[in-house]
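Re: your question from the hallway

Yes, I did run it. Sequences:
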Amino acid sequence: MLFKRSDTDLIRSAKKGDGFAFAELIRPEYGVAFKVAYGLLQNVDDAEDAVQEAAFKAWRKLGNLREGSGLRPWFLAIVANQCRGVRRQRWWLTSSTGPENTIGPDDVAAGVDLRRALARLSHDQQVLLVLRFYLDLPYEEIATTLGISAKAARTRVERAVHRLRPILQMREALT
Amino acid sequence: VIDERRVFERFHEALDAQPRPGAYERLQTALAANPVSPRRLPQSIFRRPESRFAIAGWVAVFLAIALAAVFLAARLYAPITVKPPTVTPPPAGGNAPPVGTVEFITPQHGLVITNGSVLVTHDGGQHWQVSLTFDFLAAGVRFVDPQQIVALTGEPRMSELIGGTLVLHATTDGGAHWVAKPIAAATVTGMGDWTFLSEWTYFINAREGWQHDEFYLDMCDVAPPGEHSGHDATNVEPSPCTTTHPFLKAIVIYRTTDSGAHWTEVARVDASHPTSRGLQFDPGIGSGGFANDLVFIDSKHGYVTVRGSDGTRRLYVSQDGGSNWTRAQLPAPPGGWGGTSGPDLNTLTFFGSRGVVEVRMANGNRYTYTTSDSGLTWTNAHLIPGDDSSGSLAFADADHWWLIDQNALYESDNAGATWRPVKTKLPAAGIRFTSISAGGGILWATVAPAAACDLSKLADCNFLIRSGDGGVTWTVVRIATA
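Structure:
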């Protein structure tokens, strides 16, 4: 008989070392986790690797997941931290993206300008913007993921968008 | 001002990627293939997809599709139960607007907030007047005294905008006339005239207000290890990074005495001044730690709640208008603070030197602490009854409190040490409390259907009720405006 195991059951099995159970547990979150990683790393291979590494870290830290807490914000936070580590290892990529004034209309249309500007922001700000505008998460869920208050999340998102304002306005001027 | 919808569009245009086919299945295979305890897992056991996982991945895809098909079929043929509607609200009468929240400062003087307006009464709810209309109510409307009311509003669609201007509204004649003044933002390095969020702004009257903010100029984390100074494209001054404090962060408190036209920095704590003016710097601010709330009860007495990056909650008390602060003695609740996902401090309310603060735990438990020395020391926690973690507290005075919990009502006459359920009889079936106010011996509450409501009949969905016998019986208050 086919049936769906409850999250509680999957967590219990995963804590005992059942990798398939942990894989089932994070299955609903895989797509979202990939989007977080891609938004932060902007490379499909690196994003998949980061999610994979984060999955193993999450498995090892499954005992830290508080009872009653949501799996998604906890897992996304681990993915974001994994991406922070990846970005630190490849810091030179950020500094080699070139000055913004070399961006042409085609780049703007393709979103290159926004991706480049995003990469120049701090990790915390990138995470905020990706969670908000790429994953469309409400501020309450962003707050839970980052361990901050909802109003702090909103303030920080607004600050981060403010830093992107020249990029956002450039698109408006060209269209 | 930036339209948030355009930002959504830009991000979805610029970041459009999907994982390669079979990516999840490859991860699943790798996880399932590891038989050891997660504690002993190697740090890196799976990197790039490898060919030996490909076959197992496709098998896993096939199994997943088959499983999904079976599951969907089971759902399609499962019996569907439909619950009958249980809401039978009484008519609220006339052109009654849907009521959101209620606040009474005396038995005679009160207000209700509706979707777009503030209505006031000065005769115990017999007559109501539309006093203020708004497109976006940025913060709660607050009585200073029966004649003075302050409110913060924003421009239309402000909830959908990034930035925008806040406006302080104040009346000194009970709401007959209002004066509106746009609020300037306090000066923030590199942020120009960027407007603050309303939740971080607190006015105690038409002139005096405070803002708190947190800097986190963390632009160092893309720099190579060992090097200093970050770079940012928006002309913010480069920030030195140190191993002790990798990010420059700070909590800053500003004060205005001219209705928000000008702001003066009165306190700041950061890495350079880690114990400035009684505030304690937390290097984790911005990474789990943050300033949560700022409340002033008069020109001198103010309170800031801070969540430390180590999970502790701190409460700072000022007795000189925000210039100097003292960390309050706040014992941990049962079970401890519980890390960054732990509780928050809410509902800071004072009656002279006596006060109460509420702690909401992540597991839904709620506790109250009380103080009798203006917040410097707090008693041990008392558990709040009820199942609704969002139920509101109302305070008649420092000892007599009320608690709403769905359609239940609790009363305490010893400052929350013990509670007793009130045998309350709501005026309709299928409704629940949404807000409560205990002004001068009269209980006022707003109620809404416990189930979904016909949005075309909002006026019948949310309405105001009143109790003169301690919450045992309630009557519907008709808010018929002229």
